[in-house]
Amino acid sequence: MNLFAIICTREAKLSATAVGLCNTLSSFKVHVKVIAKQNSIFEAYQKGLELCKADPTDIIIFCHDDIQITSTYPQFIAALVKCAEKKTGIVGPAGTTLLGKDAVWWNHERWAKGYHRGQVSHGQEVTIEKTQIDPTTRNHNEGLQISMSSYGPYGQVVVLDGLFLAARKEVWEHVGLQKPKYFEGEWDFYDIHYTSKAHLLGYRNYTIPIDMIHKSGGAIEGRTSWLKNREAFAANTKLPLEI
Questions:
Q1: From the centroid of its chain, how far is CA 30?
Q2: Cis peptide before 240 (omega within 30 of 0)
């Protein structure tokens, strides 16, 4: 079983975080494919899957370019072994057992009621005076204010957040990576579309214990594309979805 990772970015030049991610994955014996200067995450993931030349049972990871994996190699591999189980669909660090009619997986009311699973750290840039930084002790996360979102115990879910998604190649091919015709935006709601489709096809999606820092606030204010794709998904899917 081989491991592949597809990192999609709109930029031509990788950020320091993306370079670090590539280095970490490569050190974990993952074959990394960077798809740069893209106009659509759906097209990029399709292209990446083809470039892998993977076997059906090989594991393909789709992940954001703004994450830092902090798990050790043994922890990383032990978590991804879940993908090898025949009934497993897609796995990732965070998701929910109940996707409501609003189609928002991280809905705070359902979070408070215990429907969500997994955890993710978030790193927000903070201003630090240069005189406060000791160059002899500076590390990769200098200037980051890190907080943890603990959603709930790891386990089976209906949908997953898209910052890190992994599945066997045969699962991705069965799910299909093309953008639904009813989506207008090229970058949003792919994760809910892919993982809900896997669930509806009879696969079991899971959150798994891979530790990572997502160096993005994930704000949706003003993101018309996200809002439109969410509305389109909700209008074309029988909700709620739950296990």
A1: 16
A2: yes
In this structure, is the dihedral angle defined by the CA atoms of residues 44, 47, 51 and 54, taken in order, positive or negative? positive
How far is Cα of residue 149 from the mean position of the Cα atoms in its chain? 15
The CATH number of residue 160's host domain is 3.90.550.10
Q: How many C-beta atoms lie closer than 10 Å to residue 106's C-beta? A: 14
Listed in sequence order, the residues at least 6 apart from 35 whose beta carbon sits closer than 8 Å to its beta carbon are 6, 7, 8, 9, 44, 45, 47, 48, 51
For 201, the domain range is 3-242
Contact between residue 160 and residue 142 where contact means Cβ atoms under 8 Å apart: no
- Each residue's pLDDT tens digit, 58-88: 999 999 999 999 999 999 999 999 999 999 9
The total domain count for the chain is 1
User: How far does Cα 166 stand from its chain's mean position?
Assistant: 8
